[in-house]
């Protein structure tokens, strides 16, 4: 059997003096990341700066002498508006996406209408009709450019105001020149107006930016959702035994909380009175509740399943274990943007190269005696034809098509960049409970129960939220059992469900509970006793493996991804699964242990795909090179993961790797086509053979070619597994 290694306790990690986080909506590309991280690193007092491209957030570690307002001002000098992350609700991100969609819709409407008039002009019309169509195009095109061009104009102005440049500067110059020259032609009765080219340019640029924003909109931070799992407050016992309600953020160490049955703990603490069972699944990943008695430590976010207990607070608010996990997740998520370094260098060169090329074209034609108008027309054509529409669509178009194909196979990609990282993965780390297993105890067999006993068991089980009751109810419903009418159903704390059916007492009891009521011990077995007509029948439970685990592991191995288990469960709970699947396993891992393991693997060059479901997997999911979570995972794990798969099958994990590798092949093809387009088109524009309108059409054609190539990914998820994803 492969060894099951209990994890060693990780040493306490030092916390930076001050760690501030800011939301920066203007982060759009790899160039923005490099500019911010390099610029802030030069600010005295800044130790480190990390950009999270997906969340559009910047984390800055700095000396306490440097306040947040100063950092916001430094970001503004770099060309980026910023605000404290705590002041920026997620609704603002959604509002930005909606603004882009509205701008895209307006540009599309204007483009289609202006093109109708342009076709008539191309077909040959007299001067009067041509002039009228140009005026109508101007009346449509100028408002459209002013409205739909705002995202580019605002970004370009912010950069230029601080004597910097970005990719939106040449785009804005090209659009403004094309529109201005078209208006001049209209006013002077000229033959050529390029309103259609300017609006078409905006439409395709907005299409790429909107697709990208929609993909990033699926990668919102899960930190608020995580901290929301803590109890909102607690009943604190005062002098004389009286209780008062205290909100979670006002709890202090030393206070004594009275935690009722079914209540979520609002702070970490030590049980000082009472015995109960605690649902720790969101912290440990284990479905089996754990006993807790005087002297035992319990944590915020866990749920008291049994008797009321008194808990002395040891840590509250930002000092709790769940808050530590939130910080680990945020730090891990920030560091995930390092994969864009190569794109960063390319993006830094784009804007100055285009500006230089257009300026040299203008100067060259002026020296050749072409005149200002013709030289300006050629320079505008160069700016438009070098517009990175195809490059901008190369990645998001492929990502959206691939994401749609995966969605039809039960896997939701939240962040398009995850496909790139998923294609790079070279090994898989899997949690046990809820990942390799279904995550819910299910009856091993129900054959010993007759029809009446099954109906009574369902009538009792459906009235409880206990994991064993839920598993029993799920299994019985799957067999088509109809619940019996059970009256006076009540849940006896620490014992089970009790009620009456046809005048007789019936119950679902823990195996160590006598029919009279009290428990002999607090040891929790994965079994319940069904009491019907005075007869007790033992129902055993197990958290079974997902039905296609072996098949999925074989498919992953065929794609060159060896697998291992990293679990927070006890070693004895992991041993059986490791033996059955033939995998190396590490058990009893805390959240920091899993994250440290991933960092060690990354340090020696491995790119790990993490698959997990519990809250304890949150930091690892956020810190892994790429991560997946099942649909039954905790809300926080689903937020931290790059993708979520639904159903009881594990095969979507192998399919995701296959599709990701196919997507990267298409992306490389898209980039190749975009580069070839520029190599062929730019010289023609410089030589004066391309008008701004033809440049816009050529640019649009290259964009359509990229989109058409990306559509081939629609069938990429058609077959399970696949060697090397081909």
UniProtKB/TrEMBL annotation:
<keyword id="KW-0547">Nucleotide-binding</keyword>
<dbReference type="InterPro" id="IPR023299">
    <property type="entry name" value="ATPase_P-typ_cyto_dom_N"/>
</dbReference>
<dbReference type="InterPro" id="IPR023298">
    <property type="entry name" value="ATPase_P-typ_TM_dom_sf"/>
</dbReference>
<keyword id="KW-1003">Cell membrane</keyword>
<feature type="transmembrane region" description="Helical">
    <location>
        <begin position="132"/>
        <end position="149"/>
    </location>
</feature>
<dbReference type="GO" id="GO:0055070">
    <property type="term" value="P:copper ion homeostasis"/>
</dbReference>
<keyword id="KW-0479">Metal-binding</keyword>
<dbReference type="InterPro" id="IPR001757">
    <property type="entry name" value="P_typ_ATPase"/>
</dbReference>
<dbReference type="Pfam" id="PF00403">
    <property type="entry name" value="HMA"/>
</dbReference>
<dbReference type="InterPro" id="IPR036412">
    <property type="entry name" value="HAD-like_sf"/>
</dbReference>
<feature type="transmembrane region" description="Helical">
    <location>
        <begin position="674"/>
        <end position="699"/>
    </location>
</feature>
<dbReference type="InterPro" id="IPR036163">
    <property type="entry name" value="HMA_dom_sf"/>
</dbReference>
<keyword id="KW-0812">Transmembrane</keyword>
<dbReference type="Pfam" id="PF00122">
    <property type="entry name" value="E1-E2_ATPase"/>
</dbReference>
<dbReference type="GO" id="GO:0005886">
    <property type="term" value="C:plasma membrane"/>
</dbReference>
<dbReference type="GO" id="GO:0016887">
    <property type="term" value="F:ATP hydrolysis activity"/>
</dbReference>
<keyword id="KW-1133">Transmembrane helix</keyword>
<dbReference type="InterPro" id="IPR023214">
    <property type="entry name" value="HAD_sf"/>
</dbReference>
<dbReference type="InterPro" id="IPR017969">
    <property type="entry name" value="Heavy-metal-associated_CS"/>
</dbReference>
<dbReference type="GO" id="GO:0005524">
    <property type="term" value="F:ATP binding"/>
</dbReference>
<keyword id="KW-0406">Ion transport</keyword>
<dbReference type="GO" id="GO:0043682">
    <property type="term" value="F:P-type divalent copper transporter activity"/>
</dbReference>
<dbReference type="InterPro" id="IPR018303">
    <property type="entry name" value="ATPase_P-typ_P_site"/>
</dbReference>
<dbReference type="InterPro" id="IPR006121">
    <property type="entry name" value="HMA_dom"/>
</dbReference>
<keyword id="KW-0472">Membrane</keyword>
<feature type="transmembrane region" description="Helical">
    <location>
        <begin position="193"/>
        <end position="211"/>
    </location>
</feature>
<dbReference type="GO" id="GO:0005507">
    <property type="term" value="F:copper ion binding"/>
</dbReference>
<feature type="transmembrane region" description="Helical">
    <location>
        <begin position="378"/>
        <end position="406"/>
    </location>
</feature>
<keyword id="KW-0460">Magnesium</keyword>
<feature type="transmembrane region" description="Helical">
    <location>
        <begin position="169"/>
        <end position="187"/>
    </location>
</feature>
<keyword id="KW-0597">Phosphoprotein</keyword>
<feature type="domain" description="HMA">
    <location>
        <begin position="18"/>
        <end position="83"/>
    </location>
</feature>
<keyword id="KW-1278">Translocase</keyword>
<dbReference type="InterPro" id="IPR059000">
    <property type="entry name" value="ATPase_P-type_domA"/>
</dbReference>
<dbReference type="InterPro" id="IPR008250">
    <property type="entry name" value="ATPase_P-typ_transduc_dom_A_sf"/>
</dbReference>
<dbReference type="Pfam" id="PF00702">
    <property type="entry name" value="Hydrolase"/>
</dbReference>
<keyword id="KW-0067">ATP-binding</keyword>
<feature type="transmembrane region" description="Helical">
    <location>
        <begin position="349"/>
        <end position="372"/>
    </location>
</feature>
<keyword id="KW-0813">Transport</keyword>
<protein>
    <submittedName>
        <fullName>Nitrogen fixation protein FixI</fullName>
    </submittedName>
</protein>
<comment type="similarity">
    <text>Belongs to the cation transport ATPase (P-type) (TC 3.A.3) family. Type IB subfamily.</text>
</comment>
<feature type="transmembrane region" description="Helical">
    <location>
        <begin position="100"/>
        <end position="120"/>
    </location>
</feature>
